[in-house]
Amino acid sequence: MLVTAYLSLFEEDGGITKANLKQLAKVMGVENPENITQPTELVRVIQNASQ
Questions:
Q1: What pTM value is reported for the model?
Q2: Would you state the pLDDT for residue 18?
Q3: 22 and 33 in contact (C-beta within 8 Å)?
Q4: CA 40 to CA 48: how far, in whole Å?
Q5: How far apart are the C-alpha atoms of 45 and 11, rounded to whole Å?
Q6: Going residue by residue through the chain (51 aa), what tens digit of pLDDT does each one get?
Q7: What is the DSSP letter of 6?
Q8: Are 16 and 4 in contact (CB under 8 A)?
Q9: 49 and 29 in contact (C-beta within 8 Å)?
């Protein structure tokens, strides 16, 4: 649910940026998301954290 809420907010703001993904990863409990440089890697760790 949290992921869906964040994605809705980002869409309303004009789309999802890498900074938005890092923010979501941090909220999801991912350690040091600021060190992840690739958006695809951010999506992967967010997916893993949500399971």
A1: 0.74
A2: 86
A3: yes
A4: 12
A5: 20
A6: 566 776 777 677 677 888 888 988 998 899 999 999 988 888 889 889 988
A7: H
A8: no
A9: yes
